[in-house]
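seq/struct pair 1
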Amino acid sequence: MKVLIIEDDENIVESLSLSLRMRWPDVVVSSTGMGEEGLQLVETFSPDIVILDLGLPDINGFEVLRQVRLFSDVPVIILSVLGDEDDIVRGLEMDADDYIVKPFKKMEFLARVKSLVRRKNVPVDLTVYERGDYKVFLSLHHLYYKENKVTLTKSECLIFYKLIQNANSVVTYSGIARELWGDEYPGSIEAIRVYVQRLRKKIETVTGNNAVIETKSNVGYIFNLQE
């Protein structure tokens, strides 16, 4: 596995690199504190995962993400002190795969990385799930409602898969967190709410139904499905 860290704080880079090597001894880590160089490394280093800070000295991390998505679908985890919902939504809407607010626990970080590695390695023959009028392609992150296609992010796709597998039953925040990251961490509920809010809007555009995903306050969600 090759990991690219775009972060200008050398202490954080050292800490992340050490954590990665302790978890995956064969990991190859490359790092830079500059966004422009980071863009070049995405092309030349061909990482399996990018860890991206937003507060870079030359160009904003959001701009780095925007440019990366012009030519690559490499998984990107944003690390940032910016923890407002607007910042998280912006990062996810720009197709970041995950968003972690600083400070964070090392075990949380490793779990998020592990989750993205696991998603990349989903066997192709196990990635299509169909129920009712819905069909989801996990490897492509595509959802079809009847003949209407919706493109999802990796996280949205996994959440939808979890919800539709358990249609008409409550799926808890903990259950969704385990699906995404393998465990529940501080801040995970807020991130899940952002993911589900975006997923709900996308489904509404093709179904015309604003009650497909129902919120159960302080518990989780129900995917209402008529079969």
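seq/struct pair 2
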Amino acid sequence: MASKDFIKKHRFASVLILIVVVGLFAAYMVYSREDAPKYLDQPIERGSIRAEVGATGTLTAITTTQVGTQVSGTISKWYADFNNHVKAHQLLAEIEPSLFQAAYEQASANLKTSQADVANQRAALVNMQANLVKAQVGVRDARIKLDRSKGLVKDGILSQQDLDTAQVNFDAAVATQKSAEAQIDSQQAQVNSSVARVAQAKASLDTARVNLDHTKIYAPMDGVIVNRAIDVGQTVAASFQTPTLFTIANDLTKMQVFANIDEADVGSIHEGSPAMFNVDAYPGETFRGRISQIRLNPTTISNVVTYTAVIQVENPELKLMPGMTANVTILVAQRENVLKIPNAAIRFIPPQSEEEKKASAGVAKTPKGDAQAKGAGQPGGAGGFSKGGSRPQGQGPRAGGASRNQGEQKVWLWDAKSNKLRPITVKLGITDGIYTELVEGQLQEGDRVVVGQQMTTTVRNGQQRPPGMAGGARGGFH
């Protein structure tokens, strides 16, 4: 019995020792292992790259005219409706003309009255001119009699009293002549005034005629009615501004897009640049055009500065309509049959080793200028800027895909022999936001560049780090 108890106790102790050994071994393996990073990579490909600028815009007709009225009144008739094709000088609508007709007739009557007054004034002037001639004859007769009386007085035939009478008669004749001349001047002034009133009456008549004519609204050009803003019985008032009655688009087979270009992209485009766009009405169809103008007038909304680019578009099938929203893509640059590097490889920065971390800590203790000199331009260094430009390492191309010359940068390859990452300096060209053109560098088609890092779960000093991936790109593992 004692022997069986001893055997049971021995087995229990063996099992307990085995469990402790296995647990200690597992703990040792967990706490003693190093991080085992796995790197993601992607191949260098050959193909085409298109650098593009994205924008939104609005479709409009090239020539759009708002037809208004210069007179106020009530719409009595309209002859053109939405989508109607109209010709230049075609009657579109009428304003009730009775008031304007009455004003015209009154102005016409005033003109006739003024013309009659001019005729009367001129007749009176002719009569006064005849009186002046008569007065001039009387002056000559009085002068003759005065001269004769002076001779007869010298001969003693007439008395001095007769001479005085002749003198008085002469002075009276002269006064009568001067009065006639003054009356003629006054009458001439009245004639001139009457003539001016005739001219004023004519102007009033012309104004009344124009107002009467403007009660009929005509099309100023050939086109299509895209808007009718009136109806019969509606009153329009043209007191301070001209109300819009119709909107006419001249030719809808030729359209234009007003695209809002961000200030950061406006330097990349120019007149003549090809553009394509789509509209929600035709999601599977792409329309094409070219930039005809880049307007210098900026627009600022919420601190965002944009410039308007005008894109000319052919619309032979009349699919595009004014007011549609266009999602525009403008081609900035294009490369064919070039090597392409994934942008994730350009953004990738390898982790620092313990020696690099210590070296970085030592650099941080040096004077500020030395630290910047040693860290600038290096992956993970102070500032983190690339050699070829001012874009920080790890920052991808700006959204929108505009052409950017990346200059010289570093990408990384996994060296299986040394079990380390190997840097390769490359010179980059344009980018489409996903791939960047390889201009120079010791890389060939098919070479796999590192685009990210897969970290395993590690438990150390009581701290757990969840698995993560640096770079965020898809690819193979090493």
